[in-house]
DNA sequence: CTAGAATTGGACTGGTAGGTCCAGACGAAG
DNA sequence: CTTCGTCTGGACCTACCAGTCCAATTCTAG
């Protein structure tokens, strides 16, 4: 726990996390073995347990953190610049492209499905990701509202929550059915409705 | 495979499936053991493998089918009677109540997370559930459109897809954060926007 | 240089749980 | 009653893999 790692140690630790993430991305969580990670990263059991005393669970949590960060950073800079309708469209396209590229394997979703949801650590990573995501959406919608492009009486927080839900569901449906149209529909319908709420065109 | 089961045999098979489903609901997939199912259902290994030659995977798939059916039947009769705004509201309330009652354990989601998504069987169950669900939503929205309560130019299929995505995401967010507000927001925003699209109040 | 801590290698352990097998009980049909 | 197929009990097998342990080595500080 105590961050008493040397530079070399931290590098090894990071190598293990990234190797584990790659292993999951390439081969799936079902066949995820600690030994495979060791082979791929050229490390040994003792190293893995040295840096992750809680073993597999702790490693998966670290992978989850890595993937969670990536989810948001992959949407940047668009996500933080939702200041016009074209900007919304650019962000929408980025999201669709990201998940289209990712295909049927959402590493984050996969990792969480394997983690015990009841542990505070796993819960925290998920909650934090969603909180940040929604907060960016809220900021964007609120910006448009102040610019008069969205109805003044619109409940921004609720709209952002609904949009976030739509995105999550769209991604989930893509994972289940292999079809990205639900994600596109969720994004497009949400944006359309925001625009339609504007007082005067 | 071949339905060469006697009445007694089918009963045993069903007992096993229901016992497995209960086991998952009560104790979670993480600690789901074949032996526990046997103990609970008073059956033996040979019986389980007699009725599920493919073992655990096949049993989980049967549980998934059971839970998938329940998802839709729990929404009836409201889901099939989306013929007025109050009816939409009643259905909305039913969905929220259902997932509120279910709490943090969505058996279907849990089972699927454990199943190999690449197998056609697992894929089929999920796809079929979503297809049916969306088809009911489409029917409801289309009904309102014919009644003039929804804009004639609205893309019904797309609206239904977005609504379904919102629901799925709302449920997922509830599982992650323990908070049902996203599900409520997704439902309410979707319904509000449908109503708002109406030509004249 | 030296001491102590951090890092590393890899053999070994141990519990688990999915799956196999066969002998025997049961039940339907003739 | 006999026969054949279905159904059942439960002992046994065994592959697997997370986690342990300790000795060896390499850093870092003074």
What would you say about this model in short?
Chain A has helices at residues 7-27, 34-41, 45-51, 56-73, 85-102, 107-114, 120-146, 156-177, 181-196. Chain A is mainly α. The longest helix of chain A has 27 residues, at 120-146.
Query: Which percent range describes the beta-strand content of chain A?
Result: under 5%
Radius of gyration of chain A: 20 Å
> What is the 3D form of chain A?
elongated
What is the distance, rounded to the nearest whole angstrom, between the alpha carbons of the first and last residues of chain A? Answer: 57 Å
Assembly context of the chains: homodimer
Task: Give a written overview of the molecule.
Two copies of one chain form a homodimer. By secondary structure, the first copy, chain A, is mostly helical. Chain A has nine helices and no strands. The radius of gyration of chain A is 20 Å and the shape is elongated. At the A-B interface, α6, α7, α8 and α9 of A face α6, α7, α8 and α9 of B. The structure holds a DNA duplex (30 and 30 nucleotides).
């Amino acid at each position: 726990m105590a961050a008493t790692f040397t530079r070399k140690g931290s590098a090894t630790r990071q190598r293990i996390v990234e190797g584990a993430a790659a292993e999951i991305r390439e081969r799936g969580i079902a066949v995820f073995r600690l030994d495979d990670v060791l082979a791929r990263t050229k490390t040994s059991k003792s190293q893995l347990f040295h840096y992750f005393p809680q073993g597999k669970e702790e490693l998966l949590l670290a992978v989850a953190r890595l993937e969670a960060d990536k989810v948001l950073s992959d949407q940047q800079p668009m996500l933080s610049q939702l200041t016009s309708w074209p900007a919304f469209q650019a962000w929408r396209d980025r999201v669709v492209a990201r998940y289209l590229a990712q295909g049927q394997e959402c590493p984050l979703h996969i990792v969480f499905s394997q983690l015990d949801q009841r542990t505070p650590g796993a819960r925290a990573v998920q909650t934090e990701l969603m909180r940040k995501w929604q907060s960016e959406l809220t900021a964007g919608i609120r910006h448009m509202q102040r610019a008069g492009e969205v109805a003044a009486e619109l409940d921004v927080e609720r709209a952002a929550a609904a949009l976030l839900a739509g995105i999550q569901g769209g991604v989930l449906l893509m994972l289940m059915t292999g079809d990205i149209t639900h994600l596109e529909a969720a994004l497009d319908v949400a944006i359309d409705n925001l625009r339609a709420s504007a007082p005067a065109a």
